[in-house]
Amino acid sequence: MKSQIYNQAKYYEIAFSFVDQKKQADLFEKFIKKFSKVKIKSVLDIACGPALQLEEMAKRGYKSIGLDANSKMLNYLESKSSKKGLKIKTLKADMNNFRLKQKVDFAYIMMGSIIYVKNSKLFFSHLNSVASSLNSGGLYLIENLAINWADPAFLKPQSWVIKQNGIRVKTTYQILPKNPLKQIVTQVLKMEVNDNGKKITFVDEDDLKIIFPEELKCLVDVNGKFEFIGFFEREKVKILKKMSPNNIVLLRRK
Length: 254
Fold this sequence. Notes:
The protein is of the alpha/beta class. Helix content is about 25%, strand content about 35%. It contains 6 helices and 11 strands.
């Protein structure tokens, strides 16, 4: 992915620092306790970015690996985790085509990054890559599959501002329909930075494919390497009862 924004690791981390990594790690462990068929000792963060959740998992004693295609993001993660005394390995790889030297017990992808799997062929490749890197009985957790397409609010822009150490970052996010027949949307992400008086704006636009819920289940079934456990609420181990942008998909390696 060629990106103005994703190359700005420090600003990107500030923009998305509203994440409560302790709460999310607690949720991971609840899913693990209820659904994993193996003891979880190692975790893989796919499209990890600054990897706030992975840092928390490393603090809790899990062998931690962060995978991303962006070298600048991985360098940033390595630097800050080293300063914090955390053992985190990194792997530069395409999330649609990767292999680990040693399998892990739990894998996850956060922040809706699964939308960067741009078609069904790549989705199969992605599932195959995760399956080859995950021990049998282990879990794959996908956060925020974009399934709220029927709600008009889904297409409205979202904006938020976060300030840290004299740096102000205003982020605006919007999904725009492009080709409904092919389920293609344009994702627009804008980051307006004021770094102690220095003002910079970064904008990314990507054409991406929405995967509908039943479609995802069919793709998982056809792939054949995972059990589909369910769609869950984002903050609870509770089955989703209606369409929501805040959701988790859970798969288990056969």
